[in-house]
Amino acid sequence: MKMLLRLLRLLRPLLWKVVAAILLGTATIVSSIGLLGAAAWLIAAAALHPSIAELQVAIVGVRFFGISRGVFRYCERLFSHDLSFRVLAEIRLHFMKQLEKLAPAIFIRHSGGELLNEALSGIESLQNLLIRSLGPPVVGCLIGLGVSLYLALFSLRIALIFTLCYGLSLLFLPMLSWRMEELEAARSEGLKRTLSRELVEMLTHAGEFKLASALEKRASSYLDHSRELEKIERVSALRDALGTGLNLLLQHGAVWLILLVGIPLLEQGLVAGPTLAALALVVMASFEGSSALPQAARQLRHQLQTASKIFALLDEPPPIIEDPHPRPLPATPETSPRIRLEGVNFRYETEEKTALSDIDLEISPGARIALTGASGSGKSTLLHLLLRFNDPTSGHILYDGVDIRRLKADELRRSLGLLSQQTQLFTGTVAENLRMAQPGAGNEALEDACRKARILEEIRALPAGLETWIGTGGLQLSGGQRRRLALARLLLQDPRVFLLDEVTAHLDRGTSAELMDSLFEHVGTRSLIHVTHRLEKMERYDEIFVLDQGRNVERGGHQELLDTGGLYARLWKAGRDLLDS
Amino acid sequence: MQFMHPRLFRTARSRGGLYLTVFLGFTAGVATVVQAFLLAEIIDGAFLRHLSRGDLHRPLFLLLLVLFLRALSAGAERYSSRRLALGLTEEIKEKLIHHLSRLSPLQLEKEQAGEIQAGLSEGIEALRAWFGDYLPQVLLSAVVPLTVVLFVFPRDLLSAGILLLTAPLIPLFMVLIGQSAEKKAKQRFKALRRMGGRFLDIIQGLGTLKLLGRSRDYVESIRRISADLRHTTMEVLRQAFLSALALELLSTISTAVVAVEVGLRLLYGHMVFRDAFLIVLLAPEFYLPLRLLGQRFHAGIEGVAAAERLHALLEIPEEPRPAGNQRAMPEHPCIECRGISAAYQRRESEELSPVLHDIDLILEPGKIIALAGPSGGGKTTLARVLLRFLEPSAGRLLADGIPAEEIPLEDWWSRMSWVGQEASLISGSIEENLRIARPTATTRQLEGAAASALILDFIEGLPQGWQTPLGDDGARLSGGQAHRISLARAFLRETPILILDEPGEGLDPPTLEALSETTGRLLEHRSALIIAHRIETLRRADEMVYLEEGRIKHRGRPEELLAGPLKHLPERGGTVG
Questions:
Q1: CB of B260 within 8 Å of any CB in chain A?
Q2: CA–CA separation, A329 vs A342, rounded Å?
Q3: What is the DSSP letter of A429?
Q4: Is the domain covering B6-314 a CATH 1.20.1560.10 domain?
Q5: Chain B residues in contact with A36 (beta carbon < 8 A)
């Protein structure tokens, strides 16, 4: 219920459109009722052979309703679909706004972005919330209310019969279907997930399964689960069929009952013949108002569940709280700020182990620092703290003497340029991708950055140069081109400190050396922090900072650390044993 | 566009359920007509013949009976058609899965994975809608209106004429409008995909945008993208709704025309009330099945498209099974490659892209061969040929001199284990993960294998022990632990031949070093082909083969090669030249 209110609140700006859509929906059904009712009255009245003038209204009515039904239906569909896209846009925007506050910490917590993709398709499934789930019950109630009142004008008893039958069809059947959905949904969704997982496993590990002659067994396990799901679906088919039957029974049972009480009324002259004929058909046609409800109830339940999953994601506490009155970045004469970490500790909320303990580190302007250690030792976490993806559990990070929590997070991040192993490009043109780092930059600036990143020639060779469309996520470029384009973007960003996160991973050594050489050249006199587990040309770093399970165990120059013969020396030796893949 | 897809129809016809469904639908249709007839009879009696409720008890009772019959048969028809659809699609699924399990792993992993997944989820759904909603509706649209007309015909020729004249217009309109809408929809589809992709992009790139300080701008742009998406989609929908409007108008206006025309003739005494009322009741029922068919038109198109996709999957050719004399795989075979070349079929074109040329190799019992070379040099392909996941395009593969084609695949595989570079865990317990390698293993064998892979203590230390679930919703293993599970599988298989793609940069150096001891133990008493990623591994081999561009560039004793032509390898890694 809370969920429903929360969703409805999102719809508030669209209130009038919602009302209009509902009215159009109601008008459509009223037209069908009118068509049948007027036609019945026309025939019955004509049987008494009155003058044609007396039938004129009914004739016009029949013709009018005959046309209006289609027209209303058309308008309603057009209107409500347009509306549902607007609803979708509102929900999407709300989702993105919330997500923006949680990013990128949330991406790190929910690895692989799978959860996000799920949420995304979940949001898309809310598209029909209005047309299929929320609209029909309202229209159904309006029709029920209107027809009951109309019938009461002629006979209370007839009105009562209708209200009873229609009410059952309006409430009982949808409730039944809601309850059934409650019982089945969890099991059938679980099975569907299992099925898709089993299929993926079967396909990706086909080789191993075949080798062990286990593929057949996996296949039959898949089919067993599939049959189990089929059984559930059969039950749900049975329930649907029951609903169809019961609805028909209520609909025509109502007509039958009305005849049963109507005939004596006719005898007593309390109701005219044409009226009784018309009322019977009005009742018959009214049930169109409740026919879509069982389906709507099931959908609604499903959608509410999806929505609560999505909102649960958004309700996670924001990873950092921004200072409401932030200070501007300190302006210092140096090219890079002096960054100090003092007694920094950090623990992810969901985990027991501390990710970083007692880190003290000073990055003086122009320093080149390498951060290394085994995977999971906290290297990347340290970068994330600098970038304020998260805040330290205790301790301080100072930026030219100012605690970074007091600074404007956007400005802080822009001044720290991050280049990581995965290059994230966006669907669009080369120029659009570059201008993200510096909106409004001229073509010369873009070309200059590209030249420095050694990609200008290749971009000029593209069909439309800078304006070339590079496909979804830039996938029309090669991996190397993507990396260099990301570098060009970083150079345009013109950060004061360069943060590199495993940029050389999965590159062969030749390419990796080339990339690092060019990076050192661009960094110039600015500071650089390189997180890496590939230990190549380590002599060029001023300080190597070694982490082990979140603690700083060694620090110093390359040769110095090698001579110590500790963890660093072991990492270095082991790394030299590795061939390129 | 055709209303009936012959192959799908044949599939459906093979089941009695289809006839039952149509029979039930027909019964419901007849009940509808009889119900209308009785309704007209009762109202006529009470209204014009002034009969009392008592006089009318017979038709009233019959009406009650008929409406029960109608509700029952309509409900049963729904159930029977859905059940038919479920049964048929389940059968198709089964056929597909069995077919897929006979394909070679390469065919499954590479080319078709996405297609197979989509086929088995959306494709099956679409087929269900075709069998369960569309097909019965097509048949009912043929039967029910005819029954109605048969009733109307003797009572009023003119009305029957109107109905018969307008009826064929409905499917005609449907086809005409459907075709143009389909074309339009296809044109729009690309634009839609592009915009949808953009949206996804922003979500996935939110982290990067935040670093660039641009995230808020882009979130705001969602509003514009959504609006564009709405406009484009609405254009497609307007077409579809317009066609629905045409169909709807045709049926409601015809109903209205019939009502007025009948009413006027009644007025002038050319007709009796009972017949006139009956015709007005029946006119909407006449159009109903046709209108429903119009609503399910889309399911019709999609079902056929899905069927074609699924059929294409069923037509993926199976690797030819060796015919003729089936010979047994020797116990400890010597595997020999003689002048082997191999190539992959590119997906779109017919051409083969060659990756291995003229490879000679002998893997004697107890011998270890290490493969090295730059990526794309053909190391993995050679391993696949040895595993017989890929048929060589030229040359011969022999086991103790017996041509591989003469040895059944299962037999060949029973002598080999394969450990990939990335640990492949499935969701399920640790025990299930190990049992993949040998479904019939005893507890003792499982424990032995885990102990050899140095993972037994870890497993037994877990709160749930062997039953600890792995995978998506299970425990997370570190890269090293996951790899040990893979190695434990190989221990469990106890095969004389091992093909191993050594883990490389995916794991950090200390972990790699720790795994090396376990790998060494696995290699004892076995012949092995190793795709090496560490110098240490090369040194351990009896023979080293350096592959580049699909050819053997260097081969010999590792210490000689590493001191001679490949002496730069330890310093610079595998790239040469």
A1: yes
A2: 19
A3: B
A4: yes
A5: 284
The domain in which residue A162 lies consists of: 2-314
Q: Pick the residue from chain A with its C-alpha nearest to B387.
A: A211
- Any idea which of A56-70, A139-153, A355-369, B424-438 has the lowest mean pLDDT? B424-438
Give the integer Cα–Cα distance in Å for A38 and A208: 72
Question: Phi/psi of residue B434, each to 5°?
Answer: -80, -35
Do the Cβ atoms of A510 and B216 come within 8 Å? no
Q: Which two tokens stand for residue A387?
A: 């970038």
Residue in chain B nearest A96 by alpha carbon? B219
- The answer to whether position A325 is within a domain reads no
Structure token digits, residue A126? 């809310």
Q: Are residues A397 and A293 in the same domain?
A: no
For B184, counting Cβ atoms within 10 Å of its Cβ (0-12 exposed, 13-18 middle, 19+ buried), the class is middle
Nearest-CB residue to A374 (from B233, B281, B510)? B510
Nearest CB to A219: which of B74, B97, B427? B97
B563 interfaces chain A, CB cutoff of 8 Å = no
Q: What is the pLDDT of residues A175-190, one digit of tens each?
A: 988 888 888 888 888 8
B43 to A280: CB separation less than 8 angstroms, yes or no: yes
Taken in order B446, B447, B452, B455, is the CA torsion positive or negative? positive
CATH number, domain with residue A125: 1.20.1560.10
| Closest residue of chain A to B265, computed from CA coordinates | A46
Gap from A543 CA to chain B (nearest CA, Å)? 21
DSSP class of A507 = S
Is B97 touching A (CB cutoff 8 A)? yes
CB-based contact A39:B259 (threshold 8 Å) = yes
CATH architecture for segment(s) B335-572: 3-Layer(aba) Sandwich (3.40)
Tokens 């994230």 locate to A424
B90 to A200: CB separation less than 8 angstroms, yes or no? no
Structure tokens that stand for A337 in this block: 């700020």
- CA dist B216 and B206 (Å) reads 9
What are the structural domain ranges in chain B?
6-314, 335-572
Q: Over the stretch A2-41, which tens digit does the pLDDT of each residue have?
A: 888 888 888 888 889 889 999 999 999 999 999 999 999 9
